Amino acid sequence: MNNIHTMNELNQNVIRSNTSLVGIKCKDGVVIGADRRATAGSIIMSKTSRKVVPVNDYLITAGTGLSSDIDLHQKIIAAELRLKHLKTRSRPSVKESANMIAMMIYRHIRTPSMIPGILGLLVGGVDENGESSLYTIEPAGGVYEVNDFDANFSSGMPYILGLLERQYKKEITVKEAIELAKEALKASTQRDVGSGNGIDIYTITKSGITQAVSEEIVPQYK
Length: 222
Fold this sequence. Notes:
Largest sheet: 5 strands, antiparallel
CATH superfamily: Aminohydrolase, N-terminal nucleophile (Ntn) domain
Helix content: 25-40%
Distance between the termini: 53 Å
Strand order of the largest sheet: 10-1-2-11-12
CATH architecture: 4-Layer Sandwich
Number of strands: 12
Structural class: alpha+beta
Radius of gyration: 17 Å
CATH topology: Glutamine Phosphoribosylpyrophosphate, subunit 1, domain 1
CATH class: Alpha Beta
Number of helices: 5
Strand content: 25-35%
């Protein structure tokens, strides 16, 4: 019964999340991107929503689900990682960070509430040894390392994964993945009514976090 309830929640809240996310693991880093459209039902509430957010100088998250939950969790994540760093006097690894975030989401959705909070996250980061990694955290709180590509539970997922299944290659570079992420997001915005208006793409490498793409999608009339 619990599994049925969870799947109903996912179907009602996440698959219709009106977001396109993409994360790509590369041989020299990680690429994460998202669109900019925020909706309330069938209404476009914002055309400039930034869904990919650097948490600190070594970790980045991209979220799908309820906007308020995403914004709140991204702020809490930054504070909790800073607190953990101060307590242990060592910087949390990307794996530790992803597992901590997953535990936060797991506890959050199991806390009684009139409005259940549901969100999914892509988490990318670079460790002190220069190794980059990518994790996906599902709305139910599960966390999994991504060794190729993922779109979490964003509504643009079917279009993004379909394109990446054909065009992703194992030894892809960050430079190549930036262009592939652009194609995936633009393909999604052509078919998913909840995605669009612009795209943001970040890279995570041993050099740190860099915004590689910041583009507005403008209607053209002929």
